[in-house]
Amino acid sequence: MRAFNAELSKLFSLPGMWLAFLIGAFAPAAIAALDSIAEKEEIIAGVSIRLSEVGYIGLGLGVQGIIILGVLAVSSEYLTESSESGGGNQITTSLTVVSSRFHFLLAKAGAVTVTSALLSIVAILATVSATNLILGEYAPAFEASRLIGVVCYWTFTALLAFGITVLTKNGMIPLTVLIINSSVVTVSYLLTKVTKLAFYLPDRAGTDMLMSGGFHTPFTGGLIMFAWVAVLFIIADIVFDRRDVAS
Amino acid sequence: MSVSSRRKITQILGAELDKLITLPLIWFTIMGTFIINLVLTRAFTSAGLQGAAGTQSILNIGLASMGYLQAGFIILGILATCSEYTGGQIRTTLTTIPWRGFQLSAKHLALAIITIPVAFIIAASGVLYAFIMMRDTAVVIEIDIMIKTIAGATGYLTLTTLLSAAIGALLRRTTPALVVLLGYYFIVSPLLRDFLPSSKNYFPDTAGSYMYMPPSSDEINVLTPMQGTGISMLWTLIFITVAIVFYRKRDA
Amino acid sequence: MLLYNENHNRKEVLWLLTINNLVKHRGKQEILSGVSFKARPGRVTGFLGPNGAGKSSTLRILLGLDRATSGSALINGVPFAELQNPLATVGAALDGFGAHRMRTGRAHLRWIARAAGLSRSRVEEVLEIVDLTKVAGKRVGNYSLGMGRRLGMAAALLGDPKILVLDEPVNGLDPEGIRWIRTFLRERAASGKTVLLSSHLMGELAETVDDVVIINHGKVVAEGTLEEVIGNHATLEEAFFALTSEHAGDAV
């Protein structure tokens, strides 16, 4: 528990984290607001085909913030780009403070989970109030089950980012792959055109939790994504346990 | 220009090229981009083969991965400038080459020298792959259009790389630069295209896309490749200038 | 404060370092409040002070890395950025490695040599001088602290400069390395070159330097030859504590 608290305070003292919070908490609401304004007339006229999607697009894109959070939580341990330090490795300090590497990783993952879950709830509240403010009585009803899906999607994405970064030690690769893949046209979407197996990729399965009419039911979608997270965490732990700290 | 200052410029350019070439991360990025581009092109090609035969242009398929491909070049640009700030190398750089405006311009020039052939090879490899796979089914295209398009793609990727390098020099840290640039190219820009359709042609990426996009008649306010190049180049130059101004003013 | 023999011949005066009433603000904090001193050719000048006293800030301004709020730091009467051939004039090794972690030591020195128009054989020479030839092919990230410092020294010596500016040169060196650097710096000074080094290690310094400048809270509190600064105190260390704690008392 002490390690967990330490990880939380490490997380909140990272400068990049404010960017993550800003994007995570407010971008979805801003996008939902813009989307609502653009769709308002059609929604009021009752001809909008995207009524049920309003708000969720923003929440789908808001994972950007959460990706940054997951990546930074790990990459900050390895690299500092300050001109004064000749490559400071915080990881050495961290691992002398918490001796068990498994506990260290677990505490860190716990801190990421809690933070991203809280952040997603803030984002949902902001999004719902933004759409209600603009669309008034025409605002779509947000179903609880889908909102839980959003929380799960965000948290799992953060943990995926976390796990990949443990493997790569460098923030650039996971950041690039995940940001691109949560963009408007994702690589995995393209792959679904080639093979049905692509529907089992974590992000494809995960989005089925929030978008209606997916390949999987929301529940199986969530389960598949969770399986990815679990497998990745196990691999990350094995690799992390075996490697020399400084390398 | 005097002989000594011309020699100095060659020396600085040589040093900046040396720096880029001896950085393994640059090579990893280039190799990674090349391989991933081929994989994506393969996916697009097989998707295209399954689609209606004959209606797909080889160029469209071969360059369909451009959207993702540019990410590799964004990273390349960021690495080139942000790597200065790893391990305090910037201090060595500035005590060796204290003429800051010169130095940063030389870095952009060196980056362009490396990027142009790389971008050309990567763009051409995608088109070539699509050509080999689809020559039986797709519409035959003329060789000069193909060369023009690949040259346009090369230009676009190079400008994107230089713009990213300028942003990297402004922000000095890899992660924020990466988030800002990828966020813009992959999230903000596609959204802005929907919300502000009237001004979308003036963004660096959308304007630049006319450099390689085959001309289509179904859009009203399209730009010619030359206009696209001009606008994209203007953005790049503005950002490089801003980066140099800040670079000269601030503490290293 | 002290009288010097002003009858230096012309050549020696050329390599004089003049710090004149340097003031530096960072945010609301005043880091340097009017620092003035000189470092003379043929002598090793020790720049002493506790952590955070302003040693590094002064050296960074001298090397053109940071900008002074007011005042000047001149090398032979000109600011660093206006030197015609900086690497052959001033060799600098600041705290840290000053090199990118993923480059090899040799590649690091080679780009510096390229920037200054020096030959590759000179790189091998300085590698030999600092005893890094064996690990020159390894990445800087794998270097120990001492090896990193040696690499910094190698970069400083590359242009065989008239002036050496070293920030905490003995930091991280083993006893053998410290001894080597001491002899080395004495030799440089004996051949008429200027050496300015900062340190907070009194014992090491007392055996190396001719002149001493003591700085505390951004102000010079003593300047003179080693004997003069020590004055009635038993050692340099005692003089240092007497001077710096006195001053701290004033500031409160």
Terminal CA distance of chain B? 29 Å
Shape of chain B: globular
Instruction: Tell me the β content of chain B.
Output: under 5%
Oligomeric assembly: heterotrimer
Pair of chains with the largest interface and how many residues each contributes:
B-C, 32 and 36 residues
Number of helices of chain B: 10
Unreliable residue runs of chain B: none
Describe the structure.
Chain B: The chain crosses the membrane at residues 20-41, 61-82, 109-133, 145-171, 178-196, 226-247. Chain B: It comes from Cytobacillus solani. Chain B: This is ABC transporter permease. Chain B: Keywords: Membrane, Transmembrane, Transmembrane helix. Chain A: This is ABC transporter permease. The complex is a heterotrimer of chains A (247), B (252) and C (252). Chain A starts with a helix and ends in a 5-residue tail after the last helix. Chain A is 73% helix and 0% strand. Chain A has one domain (2-242). With 247 residues, chain A is mainly α. Chain A has eleven helices and no strands. Chain B is mainly α and 252 residues long. The two termini of chain B are 29 Å apart. The radius of gyration of chain B is 19 Å and the shape is globular. Chain B has ten helices and no strands. Chain C has two domains: 28-82 and 165-252, Rossmann fold (3-Layer(aba) Sandwich), CATH 3.40.50.300; 101-161. Chain C contains ten helices and nine strands. Chain C has 252 residues and is α/β, with parallel strands linked by helices. Chain C has a six-stranded mixed β-sheet, sandwiched between helices. Chain C has a three-stranded antiparallel β-sheet with strand order 2-1-4. The interface between A and C is small, with 5 and 7 residues.
